[in-house]
Design a protein that fits this description.
2 copies of one chain form a homodimer. Chain A has 11 helices and 13 strands. In chain A, helix 7 packs across helix 8, helix 9 packs antiparallel against helix 10 and helix 10 crosses helix 11. The longest helix of chain A is centred in the C-terminal third of the chain and has 18 residues.
């Protein structure tokens, strides 16, 4: 089993109404793999510059994450700087420096080519396919993308969609990709383009899962102290793929549980800056939040017939 | 049993990306009572002008709704004109004419004073209390309000909150009332002001219920063809109160089921202009959507332990 994730490892500078932190360990592959590391073995394929702090690599190693595919190149690490509005729902990117990430062109190591689970993080769709083509025959391929690729590399993205099993994107991306405002119709259209399962992330409103014959909708786990939403979507994808890889199950019921584990990991992640809270979890905390989640979503069948119904 | 609802009966002119209709039967008390009429007896206390079409009154009567408290006064009926944006999430009020509703000051008829369930629709909080004080001793009192009263009659509104059991408002109202961006903290603050239960409506994202020791969150039932969201929140409140009144149950599990019935009624209401789809339902349709709702929200306990968890 085990997951190979390809994507960004970055240094983030984050400002939220609750404080600000500079050069925090960031990047989609970072959040994804820390979340997934609680469930299964994870190998990162990414690139950093020679300024990447050893302490950050140490944190990832401490979570058992395989960094043999983390290339170090001369130059600076991908840097992102962003600021959140008062309700944390709006985010402004203040600065993006791709640096060594601009020429990222992953060559997989032999042990990585035989991984059973592959997650293609938010990189160019051409690059996503080049990674896919280096793999032997993965059991399940997940994929993320973003508005930039939808707008600028649509044809290439559609080719990538033909190869994958699971697309994990947010609601505005789904609407833009399908060119359809209604989320159900957007989902149906996207499913017709290849993915067997589409998971749409809706931030503080939770997530929807669409399969060929199934719809599953779950709210976000309610968190009272949200300090920094950075990486929530990647933590979600990591928890989800982690659970699937750990169990080897891909049926509808398992995917639903995986979506809930994804939501659980995202809910932990937002409780502190960067991946701080995500990387300091215990197994009982994860299990207990999953169970609390069930209580929050639970309602009975209409056991009591009303006089008229 | 049976519910007394006090609120507006109006003539609405609605423009949505899917068409426009003029002088449709509208108003909070209208949507509320049609939704509730599938569950229990409903009596409306409201006022209309002498221009109110007999056909609209006929529709309400046909749903078994008691109109003995619907006052007809010389003058024009409350009129509202609004337009929805492309994704139906933004609404612009183009015109509001209170007309006879401006001097609405309900005097309850003797049979109405002994109703067990009371819903105080979105009218001024002074007026809400004057209605409450005319009641004998209702078993459960629900209440709605809006930003206008929160901003302009806050002290009076807080007095009303002391009297009620169930407050049903939307998320922006909850945040403004509590002066708190985080919904969980906002809910806790509002509950400390009197209501035993707070239900927060989140439009296409569903609803949350907060009790003293319980949180329940449910998504909206996914509807593919949303034509007109007008009255969705009132249909929600009507379905919810209707179920509670019909069963006489007020425990946590019953309130959860009631929230789901509220969501079911709201989801039917948005499928056509005005109360058209809401008023043409069959009981099997309501029951079957409730059950479909359960399937959409269902996930198992973590039956399968992952290697690490």
């Amino acid at each position: 089993m085990g997951i190979l994730v390809v994507g960004s490892v970055a240094l983030d500078s984050i400002k939220s109404p609750f404080g600000s932190k500079d050069d925090v360990l960031g990047g989609a592959a970072t959040y994804f793999s820390i979340a997934a590391s609680y469930f299964t073995d994870v190998s990162i394929v990414a690139v950093v510059g020679d300024d990447f702090p050893e302490e950050h690599a140490g944190l990832l190693r401490q979570k058992g994450i395989d960094l043999s595919g983390l290339e170090r190149r001369p130059g600076k690490t991908f840097r992102w700087k962003g600021e959140y509005g008062p309700d944390l729902n709006t985010r402004t990117t203040l600065d993006t420096q791709l640096n060594v990430f601009a020429d990222f062109s992953p060559k997989l190591l032999p042990p990585h080519r035989t991984k059973d689970y592959l997650f293609l993080g938010n990189i160019g769709p051409d690059l996503q396919r080049s990674v896919f083509e280096q793999m032997k025959r993965p059991m399940l391929v997940g994929c993320d993308t973003m508005n930039y690729w939808i707008e600028n590399q649509r044809e290439s993205l559609l080719k990538t969609l033909l190869l994958i099993d699971l697309l994990v994107i947010n609601d505005s991306e789904a609407r833009e990709l399908a060119n359809e405002a209604n989320l159900i119709r957007a989902a149906r259209r996207i499913l017709s383009w290849g993915p067997k399962t589409l998971v749409i992330k809706r931030g503080e409103y939770g997530a929807c899962m669409f399969g060929s014959e199934s719809i599953f909708i779950v709210p976000a786990f309610p968190v009272e102290e949200v300090l920094d939403p950075t990486g929530a979507g990647d933590s979600f994808a990591g928890g989800m793929m982690g659970y699937l890889a750990a169990t080897g199950l891909h049926d509808d019921a398992a995917i639903r549980r995986a979506v809930v584990f994804g939501s659980v990991m995202a809910s932990f992640n937002v409780m502190d800056f960067g991946p701080h809270s995500l990387s300091n979890l215990t197994y009982p905390e994860i299990v207990s939040r999953y169970r609390e989640f069930r209580k929050i979503c639970f309602f009975e069948d209409m056991l009591l017939k009303t006089p008229r119904l």
